[in-house]
Amino acid sequence: MTSRSPSPRYMAFACLMVSTSLMSTIALSGSAFAAHAKTSHKQAAARTAAQPQGARQPVAQTAPAARRAHTGPVEARGEEQISVTTSRQALNGGGGMMRIEHAPRNVQTVDHEYISMRNPSSTALDLIQNLPSVSISTPDPYGMQGGQIQTRGLTDLDMALLVDGAPAAAAKYITENIDTENVESVSLTPGSSETALPVMSAASGTMNETTHTPDKRFGGLVDFSYGTNNLSREFIRLDTGEIGHSGVRGYVSFSNTHTRSWMGAGINDRRHVDFGLNKFWQNGSFAKTFVSWNWEDFTIDNYPTQQEFYRYKHTGEGYGRSANSNNINYWKNNTDYWNQVFISAPIHVVLTRRLAFDLQPYYNLGRGWDASPGGTVTQTDGSTRNVTSYFLQGATERRGAVAKLGIDVDRHNHVAFGYWYENNYTQQSYPTSYTMDNGAAPSPNWAAYRIDAGDQQNAGTEIHSLFVEDHAKYLHDKLDIQAGFKFVMANTWNKDLYGRMANNRTEPLPQLSVGYTIDEHSQIYLNAEGDYRQPSAVDLGWLYTSVPIPKNQYSIKEELGYRYHDEHIILDASFFNYNVTNRIVNQYLGMNQFKPFSIGNQHMRGFDFMISGRPIHGFSPYASVEYLHAVQDSNVLDPYTNTMLNSKGTQAIMAPRVLANFGLTYKYAGFFGNASLHYTGPQSVSVAGDQRMPGFVTNTISLGYRFKPMGIAQSPTIKLNFANVTGSIVRTGAMGAIYSAKDPSTVYSGSLASYTGYGNSFMTAARFTMTGTVSTSF
Questions:
Q1: Minimal CA–CA distance to 730: which of 320, 127, 137, 172?
Q2: Residue-wise DSSP of 168-193
């Protein structure tokens, strides 16, 4: 079976997940829920609680158990109606680049006001690039290939990336998750993760994308974008409105993106479908479904060494793929072909006034292949023929669920008990085939071109986890205490032609968060927790059974913060301290794949500061800064040179000391604009500290105008988005970790033959780009 055709098991499981959620949504609207909706609206309003993390509007609910777990709006109906509303602008500053938060931990959020000004092809990485804790690297200007995150001395491989609280694709493939038009907000909790979240890599925190809430009335959104590098993108979303009188609302959207590679030759295509279905009840219960399908076929970028980068910067000689079909480095011989389905279906059931049940099943399945030049072979007649090498994934599958029962034990304490299960699996192989006569890579499953099937591997992790948490409020809800403990039991295995290895490991994960509201303007908070990271199934697939599975990474973290907001400003300052043991980093292997290795221990200390202003004569400013002192605590053996690196006491790899951001939003009548600057300081890009990368600046500008409604067009809008306005030629991040600048690697550079290069490889900022978009809701 080829990777281009999803298997019957894959489609059956996906259909089962969707149909189960749909049936649950419809069934839950019956008498079982009505039995618990007897509390009067006046009593419900009297018990309206503080907003949960990520909520944008106050919520009126009937049961205390629902109060602390519910994340959706409640719409009361009947003779006695109570409507509680608030302005989106009242909750944010800096034009949506910062939001008022109340959780007893550092939370950094951009919301829909800011998202709507950005390029529609932006990914979540582009949207959070001005938050104080992160430095973002992206290989292309239109999000076709995702990118990387550096945060507080760690990376996105240490971070849980979520959509509606469910694990989603990694940062390198984040474009597979959701279209930007369907993102309500993106929240980053650096260095922290809630106890009940289904995360196996949260040492550097979590990033959660909240999906679109379907509109009450039938309508939708349509936009069209065109830009540099021959970008063309079309998007349409249809909202069903309320279906009958069921209270069920949904939407479905489709987008198509086409662009050329900005460096060298190459064409990139993406098609994407999002589907959402929501149902809310008066007593606080809800059911929600989100499904996305993503297909993409893009050119894998070449990532330059330091020498190649400087050659490009000083002479203009590029390092991209070749346009010559006779060249082994022809762009059609360096492609990524991928199909993926993602499903999340959370359900919240208010059982009684004191009892609530939550269930969040999720499923993710992808399959496809990466192609790259494999050299040449000499045939019996003496002629040579080009060869293509593949990384073929027959399946990369993640399935899991979190079940939680919450109880209001008294008027102060809400206790929850839960269980998390996940099975994470990959089946991959490394075949080789003859390159087609036109220079393109054939499907690795086509027998006519197959040379050999290559090594085959299976790897995976099965997780069982129990957790308990208590959310307590005292002193008229001014004192907010959240304490939890999660115990993770994981069976990890790796199987290849040479054998099978496995281990069973456990991780205790305590957490304590305390927040105190001093007055209506000020809050202080304290957070301490333990988090871990274990290699993903895909990472393990690159480790043969002759190499032991790395020990789990473990982090102990403390954070102390202060918040302030009034009618003029929003301010958040936090101090943090991390101690990390068995630090796992990933080495870039090419073909968009990475191999994990351990570099011992490290510690990180620093502070984040962010401030934003409310609109003043239409202007909303924003600024943030982070100072980070990250130190490697261990000497490390370099297996390439067989020497012990004196890395102890040096600046930790990929941990710049300073990050700084500035943003300014302006709105007047229908006009809007936003400009942002980001600075990342110098950093080490090798464990030995013998290779460094200088600091750099990136920038974006958004300009647009929203017209008054015209007929069916409810919000006709035009906007222009600019990136790298100054045309800077800078490196924005290392592709991965290396031991030393002396480490050898195989390098391709444009039309040159492969050769041995040394040191790290890098992502560079794409040249100046401009995108124009026309859109309207209807």
A1: 137
A2: ---GGGGGGT--GGGEEEEEEEET--
Distance of alpha carbon 770 from alpha carbon 325, whole angstroms:
30
Maximal CA-CA distance, the chain: 89
Any idea which residue has 């991780």 for tokens?
Answer: 507
Residue 550 tokens read as 């790395």
For residue 722, which amino acid is it?
F
Q: Which of 561, 558, 565, 549 is nearest to 528 (CA)?
A: 558
Residues 6+ apart with CB under 8 A from 714: 219, 776, 777, 778
**Closest alpha carbon to 105 in 459, 461, 484:** 484
Non-local CB neighbours of 669 within 8 Å, separated by 6+ positions: none
Residue 544 has phi, psi (to 5 degrees) of: -70, 160
* Residue keyed to tokens 């719409």: 75
Neighbours of 228 (CB within 10 A): 18
List alpha helices for 47-168, DSSP H.
64-69, 112-115, 124-127
pLDDT at 549: 81
Q: Given a cut of 90, is residue 755 above it in pLDDT?
A: no
Higher pLDDT, 768 or 82: 768
What's the CA gap between 438 and 323, in Å, rounded?
A: 12
pLDDT at 82: 37
Nearest 5°: phi and psi at 173?
-125, 30
pLDDT digits (tens, 9 = 90+) for 112-139: 999 999 999 999 999 999 999 999 999 8
Give the closest residue to 712 by CA, choosing from 301, 221, 353, 346: 221
